[in-house]
Amino acid sequence: MKTIKTTLLGGLLLFTPLCQADFVDDFNKSVAGWQTLTGDGEAQLKFVAMDGFARMQVDATQDQHNIYWTIIKRDVAQYLDMEKLKSPDYELRVEARVRPSHAPRRVNFMINTQRTTDYHEHLREYDLGQTSDWQVISMTTRNLDAVPGDQVNIQLGVTDWGPGEYHLDVDYFRAEVVPVKNAKPDLGEPLVYHPPIPALKSFSQHLKVKHDATINSAFPLVNFNKWTSDNTRVFTVSAGQYPLLRWDLQSFRGQKAKAAGVLELTTQSVQKGGDYRGALGEDFGIEFDKVRVFEVFGGDENWQQNTVTFNSFTQGKDLQSTINGQMIFDTEVAQAQGKTLVTIPRPVLQRLLDGTTRGLLLQPLGALEVSFYDSEHGDGSQAPTLHFSSSAQ
Length: 393
Hints:
The chain is mainly beta. Helices cover 7% and strands 39% of the residues. The strands form five sheets. Strands 13, 15, 16, 19, 22, 24 and 25 form a seven-stranded antiparallel beta sheet that branches. Strands 1, 3, 4, 6, 9 and 11 form a six-stranded antiparallel beta sheet that branches. It has a six-stranded antiparallel beta sheet with strand order 2-5-10-7-8-12, with no helix packed on it. The two termini are 28 Å apart. A hairpin with a 4-residue loop joins β3 and β4 (54-59).
């Protein structure tokens, strides 16, 4: 998950007003009126009309860091009843029917005006779990500040899907002013962007990691389980060195994740630095000096911390093919002895409980080295821990 940039949110297209309260585009042989915008990295975006739907074509093959964003955007204010929308009794609901080329992947809706300052307030993400069927997603604003004369920009975004070629099909996109009293439940499980971390004691389960080890691409035949820092057992995230984490969740098969969970890591040491903002600009530079958390889908599903190596885990495949190309979260790291708490969205947690996601992998985002205490340090109280709540289906 990354910061959604404020610099992309201006701009205005002028359209001929329609005599209707709602905006609907079914992309019947045309994508006229839509803007395409990209930022960070080197991803390219084309929005093209297909046979009865439209397609966001994303080419990130030349992208180096997988921190890109691509969006389609349209100002729909002139299609809406803005007098109603300014009333607290009405909100804006957007809905789209989408189909991704790769799954699971997240997409996001954003709604803003030219006066918006908090660009996360009306931003929601959606975990698309399969590629074969169309999926309907929707979002209803809360306390949207929009009055006659404002722009009302509706956006659909594809971000950080990985270094490759992808597409998101859009069957239709609609926006409507709806009464708060009669607003329908939103579809597709809208996920709050960077939600607050709840008290860890509020979760019913606090599960220590079963296996944690580091693999190193420069030494693919070497096991690094007994990695230390000042004679202290740790695992280290750095360039070419990636910690693997795996839990024993067999007893939770068939259970339902109630809400998002939290990954708890305890920092042993942090080495970082570099003027990224000076070299790359403010918006891009702020993305660095973080640790990325990925879902593990492939590789050796029964790797053991005492024997796993880069080669034994990847089993001859590219490391990228063993993980979800879109990270779960980019997280700031706590200083030494501090706690780094990472939100694990409910759909990701469900895949962990189901066994679809086999564990987690950490990578650096920037030229940093971070060591966390591993499960064999001391009495194990500072081992990586997964906090969550679940129930029978």
